[in-house]
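Good morning,

Attaching, inline, the backbone tokens for the sequence recovery test we're adding to the shared suite. The designed sequence is right after.
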């Protein structure tokens, strides 16, 4: 049994800290699910997008006017798979949290059994969010940021409350009412942390790749190959670090539920009889 509680009141510092604690507590089950259900998507999409960048830089070296060569079948397929990868990651982590809310011993089958339907619901929600934020961005960007933050909890609501995308959007809007700046701060800080962690891994690799390309006999071709690998790896690493943002989203969801509805406190009172 674990002492980690999802349903409780948290300030910003607790949300950030507990996001790492959650990964520490559930490292094995979460890691196994991500490796099986998410990593293949990112591996293929990263390879296709990296190959598209490879072709682009190769064309630039041979014909500088051929910049449009990057926009090809591999690039388009890679971007589509990248979108699906993001939804697969979101589905896996949110389903894991939903199971963790009900039981301590999380098996892979607990996640795979719910993965298909959850993926479909989140994919539809993803499209709606992209459309809503894109349209809002047309009005001088700020409305797009406002709407994006108001919809921040909708993926968590979809899975944790088993709601359809429209109801999840409405529920997220209501929960964040009066807590917009708190939600914005949570999202911003987690993005800064995950971006920094990504760069810590990516920059040394980039330096190493540059060293090998400059030391190679055919430097131009080595550079082209290195850039393709680098962009593919950058996509993979940066995307996987978003696990922390998804967990923070869930913890903030439970935090707002506790602040507004006192669910956890009510459960404790009922347990005391």
């Amino acid at each position: 049994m674990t002492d980690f509680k999802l349903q409780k009141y948290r300030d910003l510092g607790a949300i950030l800290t507990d996001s790492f604690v959650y990964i520490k507590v559930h490292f094995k089950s979460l890691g196994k699910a991500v490796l099986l259900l998410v990593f293949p998507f990112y591996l293929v999409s990263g390879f296709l997008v990296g190959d598209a960048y490879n072709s682009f830089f190769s064309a630039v070296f041979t014909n500088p006017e051929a910049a449009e060569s990057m926009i090809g079948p591999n690039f388009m397929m890679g971007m589509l798979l990248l979108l699906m990868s993001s939804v697969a990651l979101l589905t896996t982590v949110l389903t894991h949290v939903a199971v963790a809310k009900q039981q301590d011993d999380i098996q892979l089958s607990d996640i795979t059994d719910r993965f298909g339907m959850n993926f479909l619901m989140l994919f539809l929600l993803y499209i709606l969010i992209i459309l809503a934020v894109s349209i809002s961005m047309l009005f001088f960007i700020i409305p797009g940021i406002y709407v994006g933050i108001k919809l921040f909890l909708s993926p968590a609501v979809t899975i944790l409350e088993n709601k359809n995308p429209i109801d999840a959007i409405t529920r997220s809007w209501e929960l964040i009412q009066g807590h917009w700046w708190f939600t914005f701060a949570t999202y911003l800080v987690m993005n800064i942390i995950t971006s920094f962690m990504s760069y810590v891994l990516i920059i040394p690799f980039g330096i190493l790749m540059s060293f090998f390309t400059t030391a190679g006999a055919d430097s131009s071709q080595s550079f082209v190959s290195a850039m393709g690998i680098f962009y593919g790896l950058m996509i993979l690493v940066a995307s996987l670090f978003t696990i922390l943002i998804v967990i923070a989203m869930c913890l903030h969801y439970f935090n707002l539920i506790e602040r507004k509805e006192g669910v956890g406190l009510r459960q404790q009172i009922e347990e005391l009889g």
